[in-house]
Amino acid sequence: MKYGYARVSTRGQLEGNSIEEQINAIHSLYEDAEIIVESYSGAKERPLFNRMLEQVQKDDYVIVTKLDRFCRSTIEGKIEPYYTRIGLTNLVLTVAEDHTFTMKAKMATLKGTITQDEKGELTFNFSALKKISLGKVSAKASKAGSTLILTFDVSKLISLMEKVSSITGNSSVKALSKMLSSYDGLYLGFKLKKQ
């Protein structure tokens, strides 16, 4: 049996997460998938998801279109202690009019430039100690009220983190990088509030 799980936090969820888009994506891969649709915001309040898991047998498939529809809270729980140790929970991002940025965390200050392509995709060009290029990382940005949600492609972020770890000698950065390597295709980021 193939189960497709589609979930939104609210009925008017942002583009890219709508129920219809999730169902279409699942059916484009598995036309015969039985679709379970749920609309709950909390990880604890998913009765249809829990019921589906009770029904799943050894050779069944559960298909989701995005990892955050399935287990975002679990992943956030694993990552949060690293964010705290590295100082990313108090990250300060400053962007100047000329598109240069400074990203300050407890363990390091990174600088660079931000570019935006015709589709609106952002690319952060990171450097450290003014002259060391750390590479480019694509990012997605969205705004909710006074909060900016900035997420980076994990596969590119890992390379950046490995370079930062080698420069700073920070073992927590290295450990987080190693853990993230098992989350291929994930976007990881920050919720930033305007000061």
Total strand count, please?
10
Mean pLDDT: 79
- Structurally, the number of domains stands at 2
Q: Can you list the strand order of the major beta sheet?
A: 4-5-6-7-8-9-10
Sheet of most strands: 7 strands, antiparallel
- Unreliable runs, pLDDT <50, ≥5 residues? none
Beginning-to-end CA distance, first to last residue: 50 Å
Helix content: 25-40%
Shape: elongated
Fraction in beta strands: 25-35%
Tally of separate helices? 5
Radius of gyration in whole Å, from Cα?
19 Å
Which key terms come to mind for this protein?
single chain; 195 residues; alpha+beta; 2 domains; seven-stranded antiparallel beta sheet; 5 helices; 10 strands; elongated
Description of the molecule:
The relative contact order is 0.11. β5 (100-104) and β6 form a beta hairpin. The chain has a seven-stranded antiparallel β-sheet with strand order 4-5-6-7-8-9-10. The protein is 33% helix and 34% strand. The longest helix has 19 residues, at 68-86. The chain folds into two domains: 2-66, no CATH class; 77-193, no CATH class. The chain is of the alpha+beta class. The protein has helices at residues 19-29, 47-55, 68-86, 154-168, 171-180, and strands at 2-8, 34-39, 61-63, 92-95, 100-104, 109-116, 122-128, 132-144, 147-153, 187-193. It contains five helices and ten strands, in the order βαβαβαββββββααβ. The termini are far apart.
